[in-house]
Amino acid sequence: MPETLRREILETALQVRNLLKDLQTLGVEEVPLVDIPEILPPCAPGEVGMDRGGEGSCRQETLEEIRAELEDCRRCSLCKGRRNLVFGVGDPHSRVVFVGEAPGREEDEKGEPFVGEAGRLLDRILFAMGLRREEVYICNVIKCRPPGNRDPGPEEIEACEPYLKRQLAAIRPQLIVTLGRFAAQSLLRDGSPIGRLRGTWREYEGIPLMPTYHPAYLLRNPVGKREAWEDMKQVMTRLREGEGGE
Fold first, then answer.
1. Within 10 A of 175 (CB to CB), how many other CB atoms are there?
2. pLDDT at residue number 33
3. Residue 232 contacts residue 212 (beta carbons within 8 Å)
4. pLDDT in the model for residue 58
5. Residue 176, by phi and psi: left (phi above 0), alpha (psi -120 to 50) or beta?
6. Cα 102 vs. chain centroid, distance in angstroms?
7. Is 8 part of a structural domain of the chain?
8. Which SS3 state, helix, strand or coil, does residue 35 take?
9. Is 170 within the bounds of a domain?
10. Which listed site, 62, 167, 185, 214, has its alpha carbon 20 to 30 Å from 48?
11. Pairing of strands 96-100, 137-140
12. Residue 40 falls within a domain, yes or no?
């Protein structure tokens, strides 16, 4: 045994002996053992975690854990051209999650979703709903920018969508709002035009989902803003109903 290690062990033993002597002087005759709780593994999406009594076989995964796993992601070819991973921003306990399609140039540069002109329009929509960006969670189906802002391919969705499912499992929102054709079609597995999908409640991972137009589309086609607002009014109604049930 190395001399330094032997000395450290002896010093620790001496400290423990002195502590026990002090406890004995104070009249403490027995030191109860404290159970150290086992660190449970994260729950898979859809898996039930701990109950109210703290019992269970898994725990709720955190957004920080998911992001750390994705930080140097090489699961598809999009990693070759990205500048930054665009994971998501907002309240990790938000009641509503807004899901876009994929990062654009400005998002790729900053590492944050919806930061350009479309993001500023989304902020105004949230303000009209009585919400702030910090009170919701905003992310994309795909976390890396596709070249030329093209639609992601099936293999890229397959590589990235499991992390969206894990984000939703960590947040546990009451509602999802998809922004744009690609996000709605990808999550709903429905190739119908966004004009047909929007305005009708659907479900994803057991969570009510409202498809609506992407803010970038609304910038090009302002006539769609009235329909988008009708969609958001439905979302607001659901959120108010959720408040009443709490």
1. 20
2. 64
3. yes
4. 77
5. beta
6. 15
7. no
8. coil
9. yes
10. 185
11. parallel
12. no
Spatial CB neighbours of 176, under 8 Å, sequence gap ≥ 6: 96, 97, 98, 99, 168, 187, 204, 207, 208, 209, 210
CB-CB contact of 154 with 123 (8 Å): no
pLDDT per residue over 103-139, tens digit each? 999 999 999 999 999 999 999 999 999 999 999 999 9
Query: Which amino acid is it at 97?
Result: V
Q: What is the pLDDT of residue 52?
A: 45
Count of domains forming the chain: 1
Among 191, 79, 186, 98, which residue's Cα sits nearest to residue 137?
98
Alpha helix segments (H runs only) across the chain: 3-25, 63-70, 105-110, 117-128, 154-171, 181-188, 194-197, 215-220, 225-245
Provide the Cα torsion 55, 60, 64, 70; round to 10°: 130
Residues of the chain with pLDDT under 50: 36, 50-52
Let me know if residue 12 belongs to a domain: no
- pLDDT at position 19: 79
- Spatial contact of 93 and 170, defined as CB atoms under 8 Å apart: no
Pairing relationship of beta strands 207-212 and 202-204 according to DSSP bridges: antiparallel
Measure Cα distances from 165 to 125, 225, 236 in Å.
25, 29, 23
Query: Where residue 77 sits, what CATH number does that domain have?
Result: 3.40.470.10
The pLDDT of residue 225 is 97
Q: List, in sequence order, every residue forming a beta bridge with 89; answer none if it has no partner.
A: 138
User: H or E element: which one contains 131?
Assistant: none
Domain coverage including residue 163: 63-245
Q: Residue 148 to residues 79, 116, 153, 216: CA-CA distances in angstroms?
A: 14, 16, 13, 16
